[in-house]
Amino acid sequence: MISLFFSALIYASLALCVLLSYRVAKVVNLSFGSIFTLGGYLSVFSLFITPIFGAWIGLLLHIGSKRMDASKATIFSLGIAIAIEEALRILFRVENILLDSRIFYFFGYKLVFEHFLASMISATFLILFLAFELKKPFSRLKLKVIEEDIENAELYGIDAEKARAIVLVISSAFFCSIGGLYLSGRVISPTIGWLYMIFSLFIATIANVFREKAYILLLPTSFGVCWLV
After folding, report:
1. Mean pLDDT to the nearest integer, 121-135
2. Cα–Cα distance between 31 and 175 in angstroms, integer?
3. Phi then psi for 227, rounded to 5 degrees?
4. Which among 106, 118, 139, 157 is most buried, taking Cβ atoms within 10 Å?
5. In whole numbers, what is the pLDDT of the chain averaged over residues?
């Protein structure tokens, strides 16, 4: 049960990134899966570089797609995903890599330390965002205006482009960081991240049905989906 809760935390935070990219950045970011995989490969060298590379890819996506509509931006993100996968195949020259991991016991439960750390980072990320949502009504109002109509947001003096850049950079950095941790102890290949991205996308899609309550319902939705699967 405890491992189920930790998994739900991780997928809820990843789904939050997917949902923010869709609502604020107006793109279904298909590069998230490959960014997640990239984190795993980069962890071979150091976990500390994973958010840096993720952030750079998010910035590249923002710059390359900021003049595109939603459909073209989504296709552009797919191009980035394919480019990352091919780069990994060329640079590592092997299809499968087994990542190291550390085992420890948490209240009698055997856990992978890196997975536990990923769940704690995910919980912190969710708490910080929900605190932003609940405690700062003006910031929440600006976010809502951007989500509903970018042109209206600009008319109200809201810098929607800056918000878009922040969302894509932070969400990509987060995906890459969690990938570096959560793939520990697993055999990875350049396409492994698609599974995690699709699962996160599924959770985000369910939560998005509830519109204004979507962010708050991400964790219970994630827990329910993880329990069923």
Report:
1. 85
2. 10
3. -65, -40
4. 118
5. 88
